[in-house]
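Task: encode each sequence below as structure tokens.

Item 1
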Amino acid sequence: MMTSTTTPALGPLVGAYGLVGHEERLLLVRDRDASAFRLPGGRVQPGESVEDALRRSLREQTDVDLAYLDFCATVELRDHTSPNGPALYELALLFDVTLADPEAARSSEHELRWFTEADLHQIELRPAVIAERLRSDALTVEHPWWPHHS
């Protein structure tokens, strides 16, 4: 039986995620059946551009269009589909995002919440590598590449 340490990684997958800010707060999303918050966004679908994927994902998750986006960073992620399943390898492209109407953001499928920088230290936030970078204020254009280290 192969374990997750010997199973080859699937991928690379590409994800587009938004650092959605408004009034010194960051918008995070939590699936209804999950305990952890995450950045809004999702995986790029076949035939879809990165920008289109981000616009689609944020529209689906917030019911609001994007007014502005700008590339911020790339983070390499490794995750597991199950305890003994294959590792997923994802390149997460992060963008600074402004919503057209941030106050109108809502979702019937996800919990949306705005967090201050101090709040980020008090909540469960995934994936861990992005949580660490957000909490240390390390996701900047000066440091746009965060490779995965085994």
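Item 2
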Amino acid sequence: MREGFTVSDIEIVKLTQANIGDADGWTEVLAASWGADLPNFPAPSVAELVGSVSRPSVHARMERWMAKIDGRVVGVIEGNFGLTDNTHLVEFELDVHPDFRRSGVATALLAKLEELGAADGRTTYISYAPDTIDPAAPRPDAGQKFLEKNGFVKGLDEIRRAADLDLVPAAELDDLLARAWEKADGYELVQWVNRCPDDLVDGVAYLDGRLITDAPSGDLDLQPQKVDAARIRENEVRAISRGQLNVDTAVRHVASGAVAGWTNISVSAGQEEHSWQGITIVDPDHRGHRIGTILKIENHRLLRAYRPKMKWVQTWNAEVNDFMISINEAVGYRAQERWIAYQKKS
């Protein structure tokens, strides 16, 4: 806890384009907070944050608020207010600089977000806190204690894994891929960067909309997303305008033309070492053909083709999702820590 100030010294300010100069302070808080709590977890760059603020989604309103003391940003909260679906919900991330923790900063930020949520008719709040899975690499439990103190309860356990793209020898991946294709007779590979081919976009939208239905969600109050081709196109344009790279791989059923499976990895503007695994999903009608393995290996290779220096891919899976976890570990993902999804309903 930082000495020499009281709760009354905390100023809560919204981050907008008008005060975008505070993006430096915002990212400094995240770098300090994540650096202390989450090894091998990259904070966003100023360019990434500025792009997000200046090019918002039409499907969600992002509320970004800062806690400032003597003009310095010491804590941040980002709330996702869905506009197209999950309009009952606010998902948020809250971080406080390690030097200013246990001093009322987090409480003030959460109070502001809940005030906004109540005014907007939101009844459910979800956030995540890290938890130790390896005693040799402990994670702080302050986030868990804070959320529980404020009325949140556990809803789902997920595990963050990071893939070292150099961990599994290429020959071993070649063998995995060859054996997977033996099970996928009648399917073909399709890959793209930044823009989905027109003849696949409806199938990709269908799979995207299935994610919340198909993936384990525990006790979380999540509703399926309404995804169509227009929404896919809007997301693509916004990502490009932010300087984000997206690499995608799909497996298509040749006879029907159906998109049987699809995966995505995104790379933030200016990032060369870390990337983010997005959706990986296989249509239930096409499971049992090792399509998930094909998607993962082929998309990692596409990523490396466009970012040769890329080292890490970050992903999360529900702890009970044994099938996807087995695929991830086979291609190089290793557990870092548990992320507990906490939920509060009003």
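Check on item 2: The chain has a mean pLDDT of 96. The first strand starts at residue 11 and ends at 14.
End of task.
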